[in-house]
Design brief:
With about 350 residues, the protein is mainly alpha-helical. It starts with a helix and ends with a helix. The N terminus is likely disordered. Keywords: Cell membrane, Disulfide bond, G-protein coupled receptor, Glycoprotein, Membrane, Olfaction, Receptor, Sensory transduction, Transducer, Transmembrane, Transmembrane helix.
Amino acid sequence: DMISLFVRLKSFNADGFLQTVLNDSVIIRPPGFYIIGFQSFPYISVYFIFLAFVYVVTVLFNCLVICVIAFNHRLHTPKFWAVVNLAVIDVTLNTCTIPSMIKIFLIKDNFIPFNLCLVQMYVYYTFVSLESYALAVLAYDRLIAICFPLRQNSVNTLRSMSCIVGLTWSFALGVTAFTTGIITRLSFCNSLRVFSYFCDYAPVFRLACNDYTMQWFAASFLTVLLLGGPFIFILLSYVTILVTVFRMKSLDSRVKALATCVEHIILVAVFYIPLITIFMIGFYLRLIDPDQRVLSLSLASCLPPCINPIVYSLKTKEIKVRVLALLRKNKIGTDHKKGFVQIKQKFNL
């Protein structure tokens, strides 16, 4: 038995694999994986140009929202602290996937090293989870503002909001570290082709040649916990908000209260509806084509971080006013500079 094990280890080393012996079983770690999700798509160049546009808009608009809130002391409130949290998550989430997708298209190199694969997997699922929790935090802010207006300033403070945001980050970072870590218990001795648009969790563990029941269970349970849990909280929050709103006597008060929720409802719809639809059709009904699933999931994960800051910039009065004031200030400064140059030229100064 020891001789046969030595021969197996020697043959695996010859193929360039890294092995470790754990609990009398050989764990085979490949040098990396090949991402093949977009190989069969027609007009793929058009899609990647679109993704590049989405990434530029994501970075510019989210950074604009962060700067406007950071440099305006009037916006240093719990609600806008939650908005900044969402903007940081959005930039990181799209930075995790879109540049690597564009790199695959431009350089025609779809290989990703094993450790880098784990890093991308960890960052992506951490920030998808944080996106879900950030939307739940914004729902909490609306719940307190509308249902408990007299206690809002004492309950929903910057300190309490910071604690809530910190807890969501700690939880997401810890849980995703566990789920990513157990991937290292798998052996990959057959195909190394990942049919997805990045180093995706389920397509990777399904390539394993040993038992992946633990990884399947972790993926299923944490999908419910990290996406389903916040979504249920958001639904219950809006049920409570609607009950409170319809108890208001004034129609004006009802309209004003609901108007403050519009931007958040749009963000929730943009993030959850595509993911839930793809999950239900693909996982339970199994009606979705694998190619369409990859395309749909890539759009469902890349578009919300791009749309979120645009919605908040257009629908939130405070941000819109500050952005317009900033643009006017820049325009006035440019006009003054042009006027000074014209005067200088006129008098040959």
